[in-house]
Write a structure and sequence with these properties.
By secondary structure, the chain is α/β, with parallel strands linked by helices. It folds into two domains: 242 residues, Alkaline Phosphatase, subunit A (3-Layer(aba) Sandwich); 135 residues, no CATH class. The strands form two sheets. The protein has an eight-stranded mixed beta sheet, with helices on both faces. Strands 3, 4, 5, 6 and 7 form a five-stranded antiparallel beta sheet that branches. Helix 10 links the parallel strand 8 and strand 9. Helix 5 crosses helix 10, helix 6 crosses helix 7 and helix 11 packs parallel to helix 13. The protein is globular, with a radius of gyration of 21 Å. The termini are close together. The mean pLDDT is 96.
Length: 403
């Protein structure tokens, strides 16, 4: 038996006036997924537990079969694992975004314009994080470059009890009400963020980006703290081997912590312009070498939602349908093996709010062993609500891998 999950990050949405009250999943031309849905089980699943923030960390843990209330220790430590950072039991990892701020007034009067600094390249970002490390790094605190705008800060013998806000939650808002507290415990984080603005605003990388009309990476934004997690392996939990394919360190980190291989794909960017075909080819190669399970994570719908790009979100859903789901099903059919294919978002990222929300998400679950048919099935929120409901993502994962 082979198992494939196609994770369409942030694909879930709410009805949009400009789309005549429909969602991007309803208006996108998803001929292959919707045809597959007719022969599948469809439904919705609550991937975010009550009381937890609707982050991709909790959501993807849930979809992969792990109860976030048990295994979630923070977002950044999962990313740090993917980045190869050796964390001790007392180390605390923080996510360190490079963000674009507005130019007016003092630091506290500014607004977050872009949580991703215009999808800054990893090469440019590495130069900026190097400058931050040189001026703000100490024996206790170190900064590590990651991918694009996503980086890490490690605090040795650190604390996790901080109220820190994800920057994508406050796009276009004044940052004054969301900054770390300026007190004895948290003030060092605020101090580094303010100092980073002076370090970065006129850095040659930003001068060049400004001249090219690109968003600059004006400041670090620190959040997502946690200690190194301990996940049971997929082999122990489900008796299978597998791999995760993603451009996002968070997903790679979850996979590595669960004993999955992490497969890098050249040209995988986590944006609308990612290498869809390369991810498909990597998944086929993983199955061909004998792995049982592949988790293809596609970040583009989420990034388009954060940017408020409705047309881009619809386009990337159509590209996933054409360049990933269609050829993967064709390949799996050609093997002659039994297989299951699950198409699912991790969480909604509604365009109207440009950040994550906690509503249940729709799924399509195809099992080659079952003869099912329902002409009305499709991959969208409205159709899913008429199907099977799972109260948690890990219950759906258990059903997917064991039934």
């Amino acid at each position: 038996m082979k198992y494939l999950v196609v994770l369409t990050d942030g694909a879930g949405d709410r009805p949009i006036k400009e789309l005549a009250g429909k969602t991007p999943l309803q208006v996108a031309e998803l001929k292959n997924i919707n045809e597959l849905a007719k022969y599948s089980e469809i439904g919705t699943v609550q991937t975010i537990p009550e009381g937890m923030s609707p982050g991709s960390d909790a959501a993807n843990l849930s979809v992969m079969g792990f109860d976030p209330k048990v295994y979630h220790t923070g977002r950044s430590p999962l990313e740090a694992v993917s980045m190869g950072i050796d964390m001790s039991k007392t180390d605390v990892a923080f996510r360190c975004n490079l963000v674009t701020l507005s130019k007016e007034g003092s630091y506290t009067e500014k607004t977050i314009l872009d949580h991703s600094s215009g999808d800054i390249t990893s090469e440019e970002a590495a130069e900026l994080i190097k400058a931050v490390q040189e001026q703000l790094g100490t024996d206790k605190i170190a900064f590590y470059p990651g991918f694009s705008y996503r980086h890490a800060m490690i605090v040795h013998d650190g604390d996790t009890d901080f109220e820190l806000t994800p920057p994508h939650d406050i796009l276009t808002q004044k940052i004054a009400g969301y900054l770390p507290a300026n007190d004895e415990k948290t003030g060092f984080i605020l101090d580094m963020m303010i100092k980073s603005y002076d370090i970065l605003k006129d850095h040659p990388v930003n001068v060049s980006r400004r001249e090219r009309g690109l968003n600059t990476a004006d400041s670090i934004w620190i959040w997502g703290q946690g200690r190194k997690p301990k996940l049971p392996s997929f082999t122990e939990k489900y008796g299978i081997t597998g791999a995760a394919i993603s451009a996002v360190d968070l997903i790679k980190g979850i996979g590595l912590c669960a004993g999955l291989e992490s497969i890098d794909v050249e040209g995988a960017t986590g944006t609308l312009h990612t290498n869809y075909t390369g991810k498909k080819d990597a998944a086929i190669a993983a199955f061909d070498k004998g792995l049982d399970f592949v988790y293809i994570h596609l970040e583009a719908p989420d990034e388009c939602s954060h940017q408020g790009d409705m047309e881009g979100k619809i386009k990337c859903l159509e590209l996933i349908d054409e360049k990933v789901v269609a050829p993967m099903k064709e390949y799996l059919d050609s093997t002659g093996d039994d297989y299951k294919l699950l198409v699912i978002p991790d969480h909604p990222t509604p365009l109207e709010i440009r950040t994550h929300s906690s509503e249940a998400v729709p799924f399509v679950l195809y099992d080659s062993r079952k003869e099912l048919f329902n002409e009305n099935n499709s991959y969208c929120e409205e159709a899913g609500a008429k199907g099977t409901y799972f109260a948690t993502g890990y219950e759906l994962a258990d059903y997917f891998f064991t039934v």
